[in-house]
Write a structure and sequence with these properties.
five-stranded parallel beta sheet, alpha/beta, globular, Dihydrodipicolinate Reductase, domain 2, 10 helices, 348 residues, six-stranded mixed beta sheet, 22% strand, Rossmann fold
């Protein structure tokens, strides 16, 4: 089997290669594709080195699958060319998610949305994946009426430039504390030029800004939570509002999710449903200070759910705290799980 990873030298692309190795694809023919800047670069995979090729060359090699993580513009340009060559594309960008004829898939929920002739499949946004997986079985049992979502998203969701920005700000601040003492301000605006991925410092800071602002005041990251959740759960009637915040964390995304149902629920039954949702771990024991945190989810494929409690301010409403590694289940792992399911379905 030939599997291409488009954007193989990026932050998510490197995790895709790692997950492919972990999930039994070490002996398959892996094609690492990236921009012309990375052409000829050697990258590690399993026990060998792979030479990076151009996307055009990867298309000519006619892989069975192409897993994309190179941005929406690259996906729009090249995904149809792979598809025309007979390759099944699983795309991690926002390019195809809203297209009515392109399936948007979390395999534990809706792999059946992929038809035999589908050649471009969309991987949802990282913050959407973990949330819909956590609530999917609750929706089947109680039917969700409304969601109020607040996210606390890792800088890794922005990419390697954001990681470099945080690292440079941390290093700069540590040096200033050495020179000036512990009372030195945490502001780094005097730092000068550095790898600026965000309009503000991220070190010892957070800001309610992910994606681009729309005319209605919401951001594109917030809009994705609305549109993608309805599409994956196949219910356009769910009322959804979201606020996205970026936090100085590298381990994963955290979300506070307030879920109002049409039907009344039993709290113990709801907890049991969450605990038995495939791919989800109920990690919830307040008496022992046990609750999900990014540091626990890092390098894990499961979605962790805790702080499960009834909303006392209105009926039929549940509060959840949902955490997952956004580079793995939120991106790379979900895409490769889709591929694995399709390999099973198509008998490859």
């Amino acid at each position: 089997m030939k599997i291409a990873v488009v954007g193989a030298t990026g932050l998510v692309g490197s995790v895709m290669l790692k997950v492919l190795e972990e999930r039994g694809f070490a002996n398959e023919e892996i094609i690492a594709a990236a921009s012309i800047r990375s052409l000829g670069r050697k990258i590690d995979f399993a026990d060998r080195k792979i030479t990076v090729v151009t996307v055009e060359e990867a298309i000519s090699m006619k892989p069975d699958f192409a897993i994309f993580s190179a941005g929406a513009a690259v996906s729009r340009q090249y995904a149809p060319l792979f598809a025309a060559a007979g390759t099944t594309v699983i795309d991690n960008s926002s390019a195809w998610r809203k297209d009515a004829d392109k399936p948007l898939v979390v395999p534990e929920i809706n792999i059946d949305a992929v038809k035999a002739d589908d050649r471009i499949i969309a991987n949802p946004n990282c913050s959407t994946i973990q949330m819909v997986l956590a609530i999917s079985q609750l929706h089947l049992r109680y039917k969700i009426k409304r969601l109020v979502i607040s996210t606390y998203q890792s800088i890794t969701g922005t990419g390697i430039k954001a990681v470099h920005q945080l690292q440079e700000e941390e290093a700069w601040h540590a040096e200033q504390v050495k020179r000036e003492g512990p009372d030195f301000t945490s502001r780094v605006d005097a730092m000068g030029e550095h790898s600026q991925a965000y309009p503000y410092q991220i070190f010892r800071n957070l800001f309610p800004h992910g994606g681009d602002f729309q005319e209605d005041g919401y951001t594109t990251e917030e809009q994705k939570l609305v549109d993608e959740t309805r599409k994956i759960l196949r219910d356009q009637s769910i009322a959804i509002t979201a606020t996205v915040a970026r936090v100085p964390v590298v381990g994963g995304h955290s979300e506070s999710v307030n879920v109002e149902f049409h039907k009344e629920f039993d709290i113990d039954e709801a907890r049991n449903i969450i605990a038995n949702t495939h791919g989800v771990i109920l990690y919830d024991n307040p008496a022992e200070n046990q609750y999900p945190m990014p540091i626990l989810s890092e390098h894990r494929d499961e979605v962790f759910v805790g702080r499960v409690r009834r909303d006392l301010s209105q009926p039929r409403t549940l509060n959840l705290w949902v955490v997952a590694d956004n580079l793995r289940k939120g991106a790379a792992t979900n895409a490769i799980q889709i591929m694995q399911k399709l390999i099973e379905k198509r008998g490859l």
